[in-house]
């Protein structure tokens, strides 16, 4: 990117930039001087969360603690409508007092020599301002919007003035010398509560300190530092009271909740104790451990007794069988281990009698009556023993049934011990939990009562409200810098938009950037009428230099041929008025002044323009006369004018024919060109515009170079698309483009006034300062 060129694109509009800067900086300066500065007042408070946790009855999780450290709830509270509404009401911000001054906006006052008493509610106050002045009769009140004046006679405020939403009374201090305030003017602004609340919310900012947990920073922006400090002090005071009130409410709610829970747990504990008592009674349990020992021992005893009884039965059966199988003379056993003393005694008696019988038998025979009687007694006694054993056996069997029943009962009681122990354990566990909770609730209630007796806020003011007297708005340096940039940006944007929307051709870049394949031949500057005639061989005019440069560039496009014949240069354009005739005329003069024989032919048969440069009649005989009659000699229609050049001949278009296309398509014109090539070094053709008629395309193949003329700030860039299409279709041959009527002033980075004729400039001529800097 050519920064120099880009700079001069915009620099040519420097008056716009200068005017915009003057207006912008002037407006900014007047604004700074006329507006009341806005100051920022700050305060820092600290909330001791650890101190608050110590007084809490119910602890919270670490996640909740980390959330509380963010102080989101506190910020939400301070910025809430209800909280700020209390600030507005406590400070009575619905009425604001100002001293009227004229160098800056009205300045806020905390003390004025009068007091306003609204006659309507603060919520219904209109948003309005009044000018107030004191005089000897009372107060003069003016509505600036309607210019309506109200007079309040006296200073006592007893008069009710229709149309005013307030009454006014002189303050106690001002009553001592009211005349001291006669020269002062005041402004009273009334605002409904909703407006004041909204303004307060917009001017207040509450942020947590990221580097210090539990710390809040309060910011208030306003034109009155005193008022800002009042607001922050009131916010801190209300917030401190809110913390204490909230703790008191929490204390009351906590104690009430604990009392309710203690009462509920007391009932639940009593209910569990009653259930335990009923369970012990129903199961005949005094102490569970003794109950387990007793039931276990009873089971063991019953099993032992049952086993002993069954053993006696077995021994009894054995004794019966043994006695039955023994003879009458055999001794009976006494080691049956029966637990029947009578049976054991009978066995011993039986054996004693048997012993007596044996003694008798030793002294006598078996037929001894004493022996026989003794044997008979033994039989009877043996039978009695058997009868006793049968009776004992029957008794044992009965005892066995009883023992089995008792054993089953004891076993069942022993098996139920785990279940009863579990049931009782659950009851004891529930009772224990209830008792522990009950004791804990009692403890918590005592703690709550103690904490309630010493309730205090955990808020500490680290930095009292203080005002930074460097205004935050308007800040002179940044504001003026912004105005300076704004003053540059506005014209820059306008110029940029103008340049972007500009579709006209201005310079070589407009052509080369779009179609670099099309050669750019040069520019012809805009000149006045006097300069048109000054294109002689020794001319130092701009037009002469421009056309000489143009000829040099055209020379590079001319084809190299061995046969020495004249070159045909065709001048055309898109539309009428772009200066093709002007360019053809001056290029013909320039070439002829270089000792070249030149023939200038006006081929625009529909709208010829060359006659204007020679001051001759438009209908002079010329090309049309030859084309319509080949027998005519075209050379007799030539005009020589030594005022311009002795080497240039001109063939004008002649009378405007009704059929120009038919004339240009016949062979006469081609014959003319071939003959002229042998006579002249250059044949210059001034043809018709290519986008209006097709005449030029009928002979364009005869040209060696086609010069397509565009006009500065007139020809649209879309024309280049058409030219490129003509080249692709070979409707135009060996095309180069020139720009006509270019301004000699610096435009788009070029200065044509200094480009041409530089060799003739006075060396002492001073350049503009910006040219010196950027050259």
TrEMBL record:
It is a multi-pass membrane protein. GO terms for cellular component: plasma membrane. Its main location: membrane. Residues 14-91 form the Polysaccharide chain length determinant N-terminal domain. The chain crosses the membrane at residues 12-32, 479-497. One of its GO terms (molecular function) is ATP binding. The keyword RNA-binding does not apply. Pfam families: Wzz. It comes from the Bacteria. Its EC number is 2.7.10.2. InterPro entries: Bact_polysacc_biosynth/exp, LPS_length_determ_N, P-loop_NTPase, Wzc-like_C. It is found in: Cell membrane. Keywords: ATP-binding, Cell membrane, Kinase, Membrane, Nucleotide-binding, Transferase, Transmembrane, Transmembrane helix. It is an enzyme of class 2 (transferase). This is Polysaccharide biosynthesis tyrosine autokinase. It comes from Flavobacterium cellulosilyticum. The lineage of its organism: Bacteria, Pseudomonadati, Bacteroidota, Flavobacteriia, Flavobacteriales.
């Amino acid at each position: 990117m050519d920064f120099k060129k880009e700079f001069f694109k915009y620099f040519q509009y420097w008056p716009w930039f200068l005017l915009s800067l003057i207006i912008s900086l002037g407006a900014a300066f007047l604004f700074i001087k006329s507006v009341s500065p806005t100051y920022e007042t700050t305060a820092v408070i600290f909330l001791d969360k650890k101190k608050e946790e110590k007084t809490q009855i119910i602890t919270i999780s670490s996640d909740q603690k980390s959330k509380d450290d963010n102080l989101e709830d506190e910020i939400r509270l301070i910025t809430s409508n209800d909280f700020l509404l209390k600030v507005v009401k406590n400070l009575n911000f619905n009425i604001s007092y100002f001293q009227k001054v004229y160098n800056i906006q009205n300045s806020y006052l905390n003390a004025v020599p009068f007091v306003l008493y609204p006659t309507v509610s603060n919520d219904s106050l209109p948003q309005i301002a009044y000018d107030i002045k004191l005089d000897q009769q009372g107060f003069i009140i003016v509505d600036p919007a309607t210019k309506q004046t109200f007079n309040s006679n006296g200073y006592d405020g007893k008069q009710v003035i229709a149309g005013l939403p307030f009454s006014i009374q002189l303050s106690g201090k001002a009553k001592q010398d009211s005349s001291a305030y006669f020269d002062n003017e005041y402004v009273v602004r009334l605002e409904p509560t909703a407006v004041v609340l909204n303004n307060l919310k917009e001017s207040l900012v509450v942020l947590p300190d990221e580097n210090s947990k539990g710390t809040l920073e309060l910011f208030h922006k306003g034109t009155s530092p005193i008022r800002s400090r009042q607001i922050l002090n009131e916010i801190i005071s209300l917030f401190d009271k809110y913390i204490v009130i909230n703790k008191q409410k929490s204390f009351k709610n906590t104690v009430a909740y604990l009392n309710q829970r203690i009462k509920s747990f007391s009932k639940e504990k009593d209910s569990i104790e009653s259930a335990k008592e009923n369970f012990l009674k129903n199961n005949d349990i005094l102490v569970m451990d003794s109950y387990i020992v007793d039931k276990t021992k009873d089971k063991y005893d019953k099993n032992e007794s049952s086993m002993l009884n069954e053993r006696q039965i077995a021994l009894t059966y054995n004794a019966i069988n043994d006695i039955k199988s023994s003879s009458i003379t055999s001794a009976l056993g006494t080691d049956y281990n029966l637990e029947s003393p009578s049976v054991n005694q009978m066995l011993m008696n039986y054996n004693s009698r048997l012993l007596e019988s044996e003694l008798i038998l030793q002294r006598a025979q078996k037929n001894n009556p004493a022996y026989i009687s003794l044997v008979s007694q033994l039989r009877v006694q043996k039978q009695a023993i058997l009868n006793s054993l049968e009776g004992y056996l029957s008794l044992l069997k009965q005892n066995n049934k009883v023992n089995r029943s008792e054993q089953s009962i004891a076993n069942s009681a022993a098996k139920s011990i785990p279940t009863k122990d579990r049931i009782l354990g659950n009851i004891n566990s529930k009772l224990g939990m209830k008792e522990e909770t009950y004791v804990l609730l009692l403890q918590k209630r005592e703690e709550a009562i103690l904490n309630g007796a010493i309730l205090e806020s955990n808020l500490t003011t680290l930095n009292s409200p203080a005002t930074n007297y460097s205004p935050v708005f308007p800040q002179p340096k940044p504001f003026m810098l912004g105005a300076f940039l704004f003053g540059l940006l506005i014209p820059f944007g306008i110029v940029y938009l103008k340049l972007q929307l500009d579709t006209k051709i201005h310079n070589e870049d407009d052509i080369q950037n779009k179609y670099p394949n099309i050669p750019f031949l040069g520019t012809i500057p805009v000149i006045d009428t006097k300069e048109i005639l000054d294109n002689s061989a020794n001319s130092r005019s701009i037009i002469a230099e421009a056309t000489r440069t143009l000829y040099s560039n055209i020379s590079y496009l001319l084809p190299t041929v061995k046969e020495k014949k004249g070159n045909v240069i065709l001048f055309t354009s898109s539309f009428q008025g772009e200066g093709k005739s002007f360019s053809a005329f001056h290029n013909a003069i320039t070439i002829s002044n270089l000792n070249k024989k030149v023939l200038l032919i006006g081929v625009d048969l529909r709208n010829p323009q060359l006659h204007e440069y020679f001051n001759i009649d438009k209908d002079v005989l010329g090309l049309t006369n030859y084309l319509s009659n080949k027998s005519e000699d075209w050379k007799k229609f030539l005009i020589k004018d030594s005022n311009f050049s002795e080497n240039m001949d001109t063939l004008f278009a002649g009378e405007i024919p009704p059929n120009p296309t038919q004339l240009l398509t016949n062979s006469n014109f081609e014959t003319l060109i071939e003959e002229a090539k042998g006579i002249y070094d250059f044949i210059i053709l001034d043809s018709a515009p290519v986008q209006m008629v097709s005449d030029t395309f009928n002979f364009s193949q005869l040209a060696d170079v086609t010069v397509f003329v565009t006009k500065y700030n007139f020809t649209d860039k879309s024309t280049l698309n058409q030219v490129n299409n003509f080249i692709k279709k070979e409707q135009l041959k060996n095309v180069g483009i020139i720009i006509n009527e270019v301004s000699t002033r610096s435009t788009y980075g070029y200065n044509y006034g200094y480009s041409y004729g530089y060799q003739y400039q006075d060396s002492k001529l001073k350049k503009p300062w910006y040219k010196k800097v950027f050259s």
